[in-house]
Amino acid sequence: VFPSLAKAQASVANEVYQQLGQPSVFLFCPTEYCSSLCTPSPSRSCYLLTIGQELLPGIGVIWTGPKVVSQELSATLLEEVESVLQRRPIIWDNLYANDYDCRRVFLGPYTGRAPGLMPRLHGLLLNPNCELQANFIPIHTLGSWFRSELGNCARPDCAGMETVAALGDSHDPQEGSYSPQKALELALCDWVAEIHQQALEPGG
């Protein structure tokens, strides 16, 4: 019936979306959901080009970055993906996911995401550790990153343009910029307070 997998997927997704009354949040995860799965690259992928052309504009498309678990996200890559999909992507961030190796737990701060990404995103979802309590620092530091991004976007020089800054930790961050180390320290303080509070509760 369909000339390609992408045409089939887009047709089914569009029909379901319309049958549900075109909800404000409707997410589609493509078969090629990161750069390493694209043939030969995101910008030259026939599959992604078709998805971008065929999917109704109200449908959000999930993207994990250069890899399934991406250590870094850049504005350049997001621009390329937005151009192909004809919409800003929703990042499904697997930075802390440990379902593929439950012997590991990821407790570090949210890092490796370039400043100025917010204007290029339609949304961001954080895929957590399977262990509930292990996600305190990831979620707390994600909140710090988000507040920093909102502050950057509120500045007159933002206007959708990337703030020039290096990826990674900064020992002398500019005011309003995100410091993973400072975010980690804040998260640890709040986590210790939370643990003490739980210990004081009956049965703690």
TrEMBL record:
Transmembrane regions: none
GO molecular function, one term: beta-N-acetylglucosaminidase activity
Biological process, per Gene Ontology: glycoprotein metabolic process
Domain spans labelled GH84: 1-150
Entries under Pfam families matching the protein: NAGidase
Protein name as catalogued: OGA GlcNAcase
